[in-house]
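so ive been stuck on this for like two days lol. basically i have the seq below and the ligand is pyridoxal-5'-phosphate, smiles is in there too. i just want the complex predicted, nothing fancy, no docking runs or whatever. if the output looks off dont worry ill sanity check it later, just need somthing to start from for the group meeting slides
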Amino acid sequence: MSDYAFFRKQFMPLSEAKIGVLTHALHYGTACFEGIRGNWDSKQERFCIFRIQDHYKLCQLTRELVERSGYQEDVYIRPLAYKSSETVGVRLHNLEDDFLIVVTTLPPYLDTENGVRCCTSSWRRVDDTMIPPRGKICGIYVNSALAKTEAWENGFDEAILLTQDGHVSEGSGENIFLVLGGKLITPPSSDNILLGITRDTIMKLAKNELGIDTVERQVDRSELYVAEECFFTGTAANVAPILEIDHRPIGTGKIGKMTAKLQKLFAEVMLGRNPKYSDWYYLVSPKAVTA
Ligand SMILES: Cc1ncc(COP(=O)(O)O)c(C=O)c1O
């Protein structure tokens, strides 16, 4: 079992996939990535690669990579498209492109069982007029990294970033939802969020399974403080309850009812166990893994 890469059109152990030190993307952040979950279902002994076709179209390549890795635990699949020319000079034109995929293991990113403590970041979320926030563009993640480390150094688990005009945008690597007045609310795409696939999944599960519509609207910082419930969503984070923001308990300070229901529904679909959502599942069987 080992981390594996598809690099320069070949499969290889990750330790053999190397790029030159002058690679454009390394210096200027000129790359974009995806993050895809391969959830290992130990009961069914298979992976459910979740909503792969909504992330990208390279299903067969990804299947082969997961098979070659030999893992039988949750994996994280990281495709990266990048400017590969080994040259100095800030631009996007007249550069070569390349593409790679890495498969590695996925330790828990946030504490989904006990919930997380957050702060409002002193850093503001990058605006659409600066770098398109809809994409996972590598350079943009310096913004996320500044916010995450500031939060961590101040003793919090995660940061919540506001927009330039002070509305709630999202976490450093997650979308955010709140329950306020019994309504499920999440910031709109116009507030510089990444339009997450987990966000979309939760909105669909809330609608289909609980009959709850999600309101996409601008959210004030102080609405977070008076919310009954709050949680993050993301491929790495899954559904992570937020129990405290800026030292203020959210609701009862415990995992809320709606959050718990959505966590349960999400746990089923991410393992490919609810047949109603079979379009979301790309199953890799153990036979293929050991073949
Ligand atoms: C900045 C940011 N927001 C939100 C998300 C959640 O998106 P998804 O649910 O597609 O993983 C991510 C995931 O990497 C992210 O990096």
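Residues 35, 136, 144, 170, 173-175, 194, 196-199, 233-235 surround pyridoxal-5'-phosphate (CB under 6 Å). The first strand starts at residue 4 and ends at 7.
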